[in-house]
Design a protein that fits this description.
single chain; 64 residues; first zn-finger domain of poly(adp-ribose) polymerase-1; three-stranded antiparallel beta sheet; 5 strands; 11% helix; binds zinc ion
Length: 64
């Protein structure tokens, strides 16, 4: 909590295209893997960009 509700500034959402997804990530929404080569989203808090997280599109949608 906190990171995604504006406590660290506005959250910028960036789309990651499949060809840009060169690593695998763990989605904080479902704690499942986002495999390499999968289009997804990056959520970047304006005041804490180091804390950005990679999300499944559907998980981010559920989070809001
Ligand atoms: Zn997820």
């Amino acid at each position: 909590m906190g990171l995604w509700d504006g406590s660290y500034g506005a959250v910028e959402i960036r789309r990651v295209q499949p060809y840009e997804a060169l690593k695998k990530y763990v989605c904080p929404g479902c704690h499942q893997m986002i495999p390499r080569g999968t289009g997804h989203l990056v959520a970047v808090p304006a005041d804490a960009p180091d804390l950005r997280r990679h999300w499944h599109k559907s998980c981010w949608g559920r989070n809001k």
